[in-house]
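Write out this protein's structure.
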Amino acid sequence: MEKLINLWQFIKPKIRYIFLIMIAISIYNYYNLSKNTAYLLLYLVNILLFILSFLLFEKSNLDDGSIKFFIMCILCSAFIFVTVKSNFYYFMLMDDLFDIKNKDKRKILIFIHFSSFIVSLLIMYSVIKRIALLDSIISILLLILYYCIALLILFIIHKYKDERDKLKLLNSKLIEYSFKEKDFAISSERDRISQELHDSLGHLLMALSMNVKYVKSKVSKEKDVDYHEIEQIEDLVQESIKTLRGTVYSLRKLNGNFNLKEELNKVIGKFDNLNMVSILFDYDDEIENCSVNIKNILIATIKEAITNSVKHGNSSQIHISISLEHYTLKLAIEDNGSGCSNIVKSNGLNGISNRFKSAGGNVTFSSKKQKGFKIVATIEGSASVD
């Protein structure tokens, strides 16, 4: 089912225009047979459908400002359905109706679609074919039954898609939560260890330092005591205290170095295990020479990009590429999701930009509706390498 749905989403835009071309050919054939100039009007209607299809399905959002376009498409295709008996495009619109997220708008448009279908049938049989209503009632009821079956099938398919999308969204949120929980656990454990070192070993060393000073003051007048050895002990204790303070500071400040490729494979594995999205990963091993700060920026960006792609883009495939050439690091992340015609930067995208800017890099975001989303980030200069 999943593969069939993805295949349909891929070929649907192409089939849409093929159907419109078929309608144009049918109109041309009818015109040649009848030499009726009324079919020239149908050509204009067909051209209008081409324009509406492009505006509606390539440039507009189905939930915002496109309802009038949808109604016009339904009426135009119903008009062609009556005159040239070509109902491919008309029933294709039925599938598009289920892509509208607003349930109230969707119900209204399905009602308009169904009503125009009934009216089209009545006009076709009673006016064009000049068949009495009682004689054509069985044919009309049969076509209505076919319509209802098609509507039911599409309802089941889109219900499955909605449940699948909800599950993907829930899983992506769980994975996102697990990322944050892991970071919090690491940070908490690091703080606990540093605090424990400071409270226990630090206090012991300070006590030892005070005792050495006390002994030093007591034996300063004794001639048979090697005063130089006591000073060496004191210096050693002071050096230990200094080293401990440096260790505690480092624990509080850094996560420590890690293997970026292994960490990213763990992230990818979380999504692969749930069959949420297929992730293609190209990696330059030279990246391991980058600083811990750069690695943290990369892994945080990739986590954010994957979760956004699944949650908002509904993508089935993501390609991640990390390379390092001539001291320039490049990260490219591209998906095949729904994309958008206008990018509105969320907190996540702003976070990605700020991370790279803090390291002297830059980020570009690009997207087109139904053409996926792409992130390209670069950091130039040897400062990114240890």
